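Justification of computing resources. Each target in the renewal requires a structure prediction run like the one illustrated here; the chain below, 84 residues long, is used simply to show the kind of job we budget for.
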Amino acid sequence: MQLPGNKRKKVTVKNKKAVKATTLILVIAVTIILKVLKLPALAATVIALVFGFASIGIMIFSSARSGKMIHCLKYCPVGTLVIS
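Resulting structure tokens:
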């Protein structure tokens, strides 16, 4: 919560394009690896849950504190495709 008169620090995202591209490539690579290894659906679900909980953590600890959508800028693979 921001108090009146307090200014938030400006958040700069360094190497934004490289970080976003890396995240997208990693998500695609993990998806392909899961398919090639023919892991059971339960294993894929657990991996997806870990990714989801990590993104919730990033939203709570980074995005909420900074007031910026850091999770979209740095972590979300869909954000890589949507945000230029």
